[in-house]
Amino acid sequence: MKGKNDFIEFMADAGVLTFGDFTTKSGRKTPYFVNTGNYKTGMHISILGDYYADCVAESGVSFDALYGPAYKGITLAAATASSLYRNHGINVPYFFNRKEVKDHGEGGALIGYKPKDGDKLVIIEDVVTAGTAVRESLELLKTVADVTVTALFVSVDRMERGMGERSTLDELRDEFGISVYALISARDIIASFPKGDERVSKMNAYLAQYGAKE
Question: Which residues have C-beta within 8 Å of that of residue 177, sequence separation ≥ 6?
Fold first, then answer.
């Protein structure tokens, strides 16, 4: 697996990691933004899948299928499953949900693999802010079968406070007992820049204001 700086450079080259003045969904003013919707070529999704697959394989997490929450998680789960098979010889099914339940044809809320009782599942997501989408996914999966979600994989840990003083990812770990893995963190991004870079001071100031307590 390539290093974290390689992934940061890949995100920046793809226009996924950008710097400026942005406002998050929670209303926080942030000096950087991660928009995985800007991955838009075959090369992008192939490389991204490799990064996720390497992280999944190296984690040693036990699972039976990958789940990608609509919409961005759909492509991520498919790319990860493809790379796991291509690069690691791991052939696992994947599936995703519909935003609206289909009432004709095959029907249902899920497309692809159909989870069964006892399955261990992994969620593949892009960036988790408040954790709302992950909690919705966990709720949905429990209505389909008696499954266990063993891990969550995300691109970036923004290291911000969630509903309390701790980070959203830490809250998800404690609340649901799942392992959480991020390809990179906000601190990794900061460390990739030379000292004196304006982006370093802005990101440090942001974390000083909104960063989670360890």
Answer: none
Cβ atoms within 10 Å of 180's Cβ, excluding its own: 21
Rounded Cα gap, residues 70 and 126, in angstroms: 11
Give which of 1, 98, 15, 119 is closest to 49, Cα–Cα. Answer: 1
Question: Pairing mode, if any, of strands 108-112 and 148-157?
Answer: unpaired
- The answer to whether residues 85 and 58 touch, using CB atoms and an 8 Å cutoff, is no
Longest Cα–Cα distance of the chain, Å, equals: 59
Within 13 Å and on the Cβ side, how many CA atoms surround 78? 12
Say if CB 172 and CB 131 are below 8 A apart.
Answer: yes
Catalytic (active-site) positions: 102, 104
What pLDDT is recorded for position 106? Answer: 53
What's the pLDDT tens digit per position in 16-30?
999 999 998 778 899
Q: In which residue ranges of the chain is pLDDT below 70?
A: 1, 100-108, 214
Q: Evaluate if pTM is beyond 0.70.
A: yes
The answer to whether the CB of 125 falls within 8 A of the CB of 73 is yes
Q: What is residue 27's predicted lDDT score, i.e. its pLDDT?
A: 86
C-alpha span between 153 and 40 (Å, rounded) = 20
